Amino acid sequence: MKRRYQFILLGGVFLSLSACKEEEATPAPDPVIQQAANPDRGREHFDTCATCHGEDGQGNRDMGAPSLVNMAPWSVEAQLIKFRSGLRGRHEDDAWGAQMADMAETLEDEQAITDVVAYIDSLPDEMPEQTLTGNNATGERYYHMICGACHGPGGQGTEAMQTPTLIGVDDWYLQRQYQNFAAKIRGYHIEDKAGRQMGMMSHSLPDEQTLNDILVFLQAPEMKVVPE
């Protein structure tokens, strides 16, 4: 019995080693080499985006589509990846987000995302119209007290902290996104670290009017400098 057991054991080891050798012998697939961003290819992809965001990326409030032209390229790319991978736009109460997530899935790979972002970055800047009312001074005070540490003293955002620019972005869109964070409609996915962090910060303001005050401050003439 002992000899038979040893034979079976050794046979199992032999088979395991053979399997390892076969796995080692299998060549690894060639890595996908991403090409440099091509705005011309991106223009073709943007035809789909233009249906909601407009030919010049200026946005359309009636369709829930914000202006894209003043958003930092890294931020646009990050959000497209989140939409495409399900980290954003798949909450049952996010109808606008679901629409965007479906559209993002039409971008077949990261190269397509890189190209369309490059095209958006080539569009002319245009500052959006102010739609909210509030107290500029109150908004400035609360912004520097709560928001500025992450989004920067001038609202320019920072890629290192994954905080987008708030300058030149539609105030109605920022209002809706803040409300979505507060309701956990956005930032719900465990892998969306930046979104979850913003979700926690979204309970820092005392009321909705204070949010409007901050958004009015961000729309002030002295703040209307489009970040590089």
Describe the structure.
Keywords: Heme, Iron, Metal-binding, Signal. This is Cytochrome C. GO terms for molecular function: electron transfer activity; heme binding; metal ion binding. It comes from Paremcibacter congregatus. Helix 7 crosses helix 8. The protein is built from 9 helices and no strands. The protein has helices spanning about 1-25, 40-55, 75-85, 95-105, 110-120, 135-150, 170-180, 195-200, 210-220. With about 230 residues, it is an all-alpha fold.
Please outline the helices and strands:
Layout: H1 2-25, H2 39-53, H3 73-85, H4 95-104, H5 110-122, H6 136-151, H7 171-182, H8 193-201, H9 208-218
Helix pairs in contact: 2-5, 3-4, 3-5, 6-9, 7-8, 7-9
InterPro entries: Cyt_c-like_dom (IPR009056), Cyt_c-like_dom_sf (IPR036909), Cytochrome_c_Oxidase_Subunit (IPR050597)
Domain Cytochrome c: 37-124, 134-222
GO molecular function: electron transfer activity; heme binding; metal ion binding
Could you list some keywords that capture this structure?
mainly alpha; Cytochrome Bc1 Complex, Chain D, domain 2; globular; Cyt_c-like_dom; single chain; 228 residues; disordered N terminus; 2 domains
Give the N-terminus to C-terminus distance in angstroms: 77 Å
Topology-level CATH name of the largest domain: Cytochrome Bc1 Complex, Chain D, domain 2
* N-to-C SSE string, H for helix and E for strand: HHHHHHHHH
| Poorly predicted residue ranges | 1-23
Q: CATH top level of the largest domain?
A: Mainly Alpha
| Number of separate structural domains | 2
What is the CATH architecture term of the largest domain?
Orthogonal Bundle
Spell out the CATH superfamily of the largest domain.
Cytochrome c-like domain
> What profile does the largest beta sheet have?
none
The whole-angstrom Rg is 24 Å
**Strand share of the residues?**
under 5%
**How many helical stretches?**
9
The assigned structural class equals mainly alpha
Which overall shape is indicated by the principal axes computed on the Cα atoms? globular
Number of strands: 0
